[in-house]
Specification:
five-stranded antiparallel beta sheet; 11 strands
Length: 168
């Protein structure tokens, strides 16, 4: 025993502390727990983005439908795949003669959200001055985790319905 004059206690000659293997094990456990939490967080964020994009798309379609009725013109809506494999949609308006006006509006979908299915063949839709679409269609948006949301547009009335999020 070696006396410690400053603390007035004795220190054992045996080393006190942690072995390197113990510290590595604790670090590995913390890493595993953090990785599990982070992967669940990413799934949760992607699920929120999917729901948010389906709500935004539905609102946009309803707004375009109302705009077509009030302005008595046809509005063109089309999904496009642009840079970095990111999906988005283009909106064009027609003039009183039915020709496209110059310019277009492009809005990208949130990262990780893609167009998975469009039942009408080409991913495009015309919203006529009556509010009715050119064709009834089902749009399925999905994320990288296999979750999807379906948006249905009825052909005669133009009613837009959103189905709940499902796992593929």
């Amino acid at each position: 025993m070696v006396p410690n004059f400053y603390l007035e206690t004795t220190i054992n000659k045996k080393r006190a502390g942690y072995v390197l293997i113990e510290l590595l094990m604790v670090a590995a456990i913390i890493t595993l727990i953090t990785g599990g939490i982070m992967s669940q967080g990413v799934k949760w964020i992607d699920s929120i983005r999917l729901r948010q994009s389906s709500r935004e798309l539905t609102s946009t379609l309803r707004l375009l439908q109302n705009q077509a009725i009030t302005e008595e013109r046809t509005i063109y809506f089309r999904f496009v795949l642009r840079e970095n494999n990111r999906w988005g949609y283009i909106v064009k308006q027609t003039d009183e003669y039915g020709y496209f006006e110059p310019g277009e509006i492009y809005r990208p979908l949130p990262p990780g959200v893609k167009l998975d299915y469009f039942s009408a063949g080409l991913p495009e839709l015309m919203l006529h001055a009556t509010g009715a679409p050119s064709t009834g269609t089902t749009i399925r948006l999905s994320n990288s985790w296999g979750r999807s949301v379906e948006i249905t547009i009825l052909p005669a009335t133009g009613r837009i319905q959103v189905k709940k999020e499902t796992a593929n």
